[in-house]
Amino acid sequence: MTGTPLANEIRRWRFERGEMTQEALAQACGVTRQTIIALEAGKYAPSLELAFRIARAFGVGVEEVFRWKTE
Amino acid sequence: MVLPNPVKSSHSVWLLLGLAALGAGLWLVFWPPSGYSMWIVGMGGPLVGCGSALAAIQLSLWRKTGFEHAAAPAEINAWIMLLFVGALVAVSLGNADLLATGLSGHGATHLGLKLGGLTLFYLILAHLLRARRGEAILEDERDLEIRMRAAAWGRGALIFCIAGLMVMLGLSPAEKLRWATTLVIASQLWFSLLWGWLVEYIAVVFFYWRDRSGQ
User: Fold this and answer.
1) What ipTM did this prediction achieve?
2) Could you give all domains of chain A from N- to C-terminal order, each with its CATH number?
3) Pairwise CB contact (< 8 Å): B141 & A50
4) Which of B35, B114, B193, B209 is the least buried, fewest Cβ under 10 Å from its Cβ?
5) Which residues of chain A make contact with B75, given a CB cutoff of 8 A?
6) Averaged over B124-144, what is the pLDDT?
7) ∠ CA B72-B22-B104, rounded to 5°
């Protein structure tokens, strides 16, 4: 579960959404806060469904939240 | 004498009372004092149940601890299961001679009390933790993935034990297998099962720890 090839902008999007808390994002996506922590730290690659849920919680497209690290 | 209301008054008095009952119960279950009647020794199981229930209720009324914020509910559950399986292994190893030579009525009662007390303790703790968490999300896809990977480790450990037992019983000459009574083989299968569980829950807590520590 370490070394995922996905990078994400979850922290930035939380900031841009008025410092949305990890707990609030977790509840909006139906996961635990610890999973959001693991995602932000880049230790966990989400399923396609969770990636879409997170992007939807921010009101943006999935490619604006997740990208390949090589890009 | 008016007892303090467990909800409104100081939690610590009831918590200490619960922990004392739990401690006394565990002492009676695991180290039964000789010279006392079966009735006193038999109080161990109910004391474990009542004490753990009282202590857990008081703990559930306290504010959340730092560990509860840091660890996912599934991780806390895995720690509890690890402790429970560890205790089962300890009790089973402590009674290995009983399991190998046959259970007398007295021995079966003692072993049953120990295992029953432990199971009761685990069930009460698990139920109260579930009640404390309320509507919170208890498990998500990351937890399931960790559990699946850990289950593979547990399955591997179980297969290793069963295959070893199978090879030993299948390939050893009959005269070298006089010790292998049905009861001994049953005990070894029980220990194999416990070993599989133990490896599985060690793997679960290890995976959570690795995720958090960033290694």
Assistant:
1) 0.85
2) 6-58 (1.10.260.40)
3) yes
4) B35
5) 34
6) 80
7) 110
